[in-house]
Structures are given as structure tokens and as C-alpha cells.
Design goal:
mainly alpha, 0% strand, 2 helices, single chain, 97 residues, 72% helix
């Protein structure tokens, strides 16, 4: 019985060490990404503020406003249609079956 218990314990400790290391790396990656998101949110807020200031200056100068440009929307994005299979490609697929 002791012979089978030793390898199981060794394997368990190896898995424990691997999982512990993976969890530490995961936590560090989450911190890094969170910091990057916070930085990007600050940059976005600054750019949005600048946009507001520029629009106000434009209005104060009485300049005509250009038409609003649509934002990149997942729903409005153009997606290419699927490729049509040629008769030769269909024949190869049927032979492969």
C-alpha cells in the first residue's frame, strides 16, 4: 500500500505546485490588464473632453458642422458572404468520405 500512496502524493504535490503557479500568473495578468484598461479609460475621457471643447469652439465660431460620422458598430459592420464551393471542391469532399 505505501508504494501506491507515494506516487499519488507526489503527483498531487506536482499538480498543486502547477496550479498555484498558474493562479499567481493569472492574478498578475488580471492586474496588468486592469491597469491597462484604467489607463485607456483615462485617455478616452481626455479625448472625449477635447472633442467637446472643439465642438464648442466650432459652434462659437459659427462654422458649419460636418455630418456626423457613424461609429464602428458590430451590427453595421460589413461581413463578407461565405465562399461558394466549386464543383471540383465538392467532388474532392465526396471522395474523401
Amino acid at each position: 500500500m505505501p508504494e501506491t500512496a507515494a506516487p499519488a502524493t507526489e503527483l498531487t504535490s506536482q499538480y498543486l505546485a502547477q496550479v498555484t503557479g498558474d493562479l499567481e500568473r493569472n492574478a498578475k495578468e488580471q492586474e496588468r490588464i486592469s491597469a491597462e484598461i484604467a489607463s485607456l479609460q483615462e485617455q478616452l475621457a481626455a479625448v472625449q473632453h477635447n472633442h467637446t471643447v472643439l465642438v464648442n469652439v466650432q459652434q462659437a465660431l459659427g462654422l458649419p458642422q460636418p455630418p456626423a460620422q457613424p461609429t464602428a458598430d458590430a451590427e453595421s459592420a460589413t461581413v463578407p458572404s461565405p465562399r461558394q464551393k466549386t464543383p471540383a471542391a465538392r467532388g474532392r469532399k465526396q471522395k474523401a468520405r
